[in-house]
């Protein structure tokens, strides 16, 4: 097996070359080695394919990033058209270049893979915890079902262009030179449709909105991408369809925050419960959960309920439910409650003198300021 050359060396550009430099380098090589310019030249054909392969990778930001990190091995398994016909030569060279150099007639009707699409799907936190099947509406270009993509009216056929005789080009002599240009009648296709299909108007493709079912896996997070092969736009002339990429966005939840596979919530307890310990009920994603409050729990403590968070993707267990503790300060005290707290303050060695007030005195002082009539 021949070892592939470095793509930057193939195009003769630096590794930090921008898109314009890469496009310019490929255009130069494509003009030099294109099969239409070098008939029956295997070496030129191989160089054209090599340059096209390099261009197809380096012009795509995602593929280029993968190649820069992992080399040729990183691109294995990625769907890429390296035939040379996936590149839009009209966009690359323009009409002037096409006419001066004879064009690349007939390529428009060559099989061409359909365009891939991206669909952004918003789901709820409950959806990614329990899993869910959803149906999405995807607008896309599909093969016309009336003419089966031929573009011709039922009962009629596509015929060879009588002006260029199927070559897609016409030649014109000017002095010592013979120049070729794209056939104006078939626009380089080499064929014409005499009776267009009324459904697609001769294009062979129609715009449609399709319903596609998708299973949301447990544990996925925002940014997760599903690749649905063949669910993109239809290909041309029997070529395969593109892919559909569904990107997940998990909507914020009113009660819970997500930290990877953990869920975070808050619970309020009294200072008595915080001091002596208690068992309380906490609202989880699937109902109430029992939580043990250890004696001496401080404000802001984070307590865990194992395996009550978000399922770990393609695993049998889940993250935890993390409960942040908030301690409620009583706002209304009767005389008996106040007396008991004062006794506790004295037992705790805290002064009740306003000049050296302790925790409980400060607490009761704030209470009286907020409730002067109590």
Structural notes for this entry:
The protein is of the alpha+beta class and about 375 residues long. Among the domains are: about 1-85, DnaJ domain (Helix Hairpins, Orthogonal Bundle); about 255-330, Urease metallochaperone UreE, N-terminal domain (HSP40/DNAj peptide-binding domain, Sandwich); about 335-370, no CATH class. Helix content is about 25%, strand content about 25%. It is built from nine helices and 15 strands. The chain has helices at about 5-10, 20-35, 40-60, 60-70, 90-100, 125-130, 270-275, 335-345, 360-370; strands at about 115-125, 130-145, 160, 170-175, 175-180, 190-195, 205-215, 225-230, 245-250, 255-260, 260-270, 280-285, 285-295, 300-305, 320-330. Strands 10-11-15-14 form a four-stranded mixed sheet. It has a three-stranded mixed sheet with strand order 1-9-8. The protein has a two-stranded antiparallel sheet with strand order 2-7. Strand 4 (about 170-175) and strand 5 (about 175-180) form a beta hairpin. The chain is elongated. The model is unreliable at about 80-110 and about 355-360 (pLDDT under 50).
Distance between the termini: 91 Å
The residue-averaged pLDDT reads: 81
Strand content: 25-35%
Q: Specify the number of helices.
A: 9
**Bulk shape:** elongated
Helix content: 25-40%
* CATH architecture title of the domain at 1-87: Orthogonal Bundle
Write the CATH homologous superfamily of the domain at 1-87: DnaJ domain
The count of DSSP E runs of length 2 or more, i.e. the number of strands, is 15
Q: Helix- and strand-based class?
A: alpha+beta
Largest sheet: 4 strands, mixed
CATH topology of the domain at 1-87: Helix Hairpins
What strand order characterises the main sheet? 10-11-15-14
By CATH reckoning, the class of the domain at 1-87 would read Mainly Alpha
Please trace the helix and strand order, writing H or E for each element.
HHHHHEHEEEEEEEEEEHEEEEHH
């Amino acid at each position: 097996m021949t070892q592939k050359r470095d793509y930057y060396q193939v195009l003769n550009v630096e590794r930090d070359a921008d898109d314009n430099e890469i496009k310019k380098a490929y255009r130069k090589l494509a003009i030099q080695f294109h099969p239409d310019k070098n008939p029956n030249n295997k070496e030129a054909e191989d160089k054209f394919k090599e340059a096209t392969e390099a261009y197809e990778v380096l012009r795509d930001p995602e593929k280029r990033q993968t190649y820069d990190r992992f080399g040729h091995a990183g691109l294995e398994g990625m769907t890429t058209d390296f035939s040379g016909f996936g590149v839009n030569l009209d966009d690359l060279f323009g009409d002037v270049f096409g006419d001066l150099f004879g064009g690349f007639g007939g390529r428009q009707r060559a099989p061409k893979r359909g365009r891939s699409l991206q669909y952004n799907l918003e789901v709820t936190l409950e959806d990614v915890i329990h899993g869910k099947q959803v149906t999405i509406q995807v607008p896309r270009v599909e093969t016309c079902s009336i003419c089966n993509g031929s573009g011709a009216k039922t009962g009629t056929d596509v015929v060879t262009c009588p002006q260029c005789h199927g070559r897609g080009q016409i030649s014109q002599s000017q002095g010592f030179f013979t120049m070729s240009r794209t056939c104006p009648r078939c626009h380089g296709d080499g064929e014409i449709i005499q009776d267009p299909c009324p459904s697609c108007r001769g294009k062979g493709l129609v715009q449609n909105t399709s319903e596609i079912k998708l299973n949301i896996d447990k544990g996925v997070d925002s940014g997760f991408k599903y690749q649905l092969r063949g669910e993109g736009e239809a290909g041309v002339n029997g070529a395969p369809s593109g892919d559909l990429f569904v990107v997940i966005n998990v909507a914020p939840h009113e009660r819970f925050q997500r930290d990877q596979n953990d869920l975070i919530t808050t619970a309020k307890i009294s200072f008595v419960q915080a001091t002596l310990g208690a068992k309380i009920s906490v609202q989880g994603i699937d109902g109430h959960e029992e939580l043990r409050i250890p004696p001496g729990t401080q404000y802001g403590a984070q307590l865990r309920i194992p395996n009550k968070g978000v399922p770990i993707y393609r695993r049998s267990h889940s993250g935890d439910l993390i409960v942040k503790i908030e301690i409620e300060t009583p706002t209304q005290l009767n005389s008996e409650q106040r007396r008991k707290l004062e006794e506790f303050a004295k037992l705790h060695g805290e002064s009740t003198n306003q000049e050296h007030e302790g925790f409980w005195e400060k607490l009761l002082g704030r209470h009286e300021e907020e409730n002067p009539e109590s």
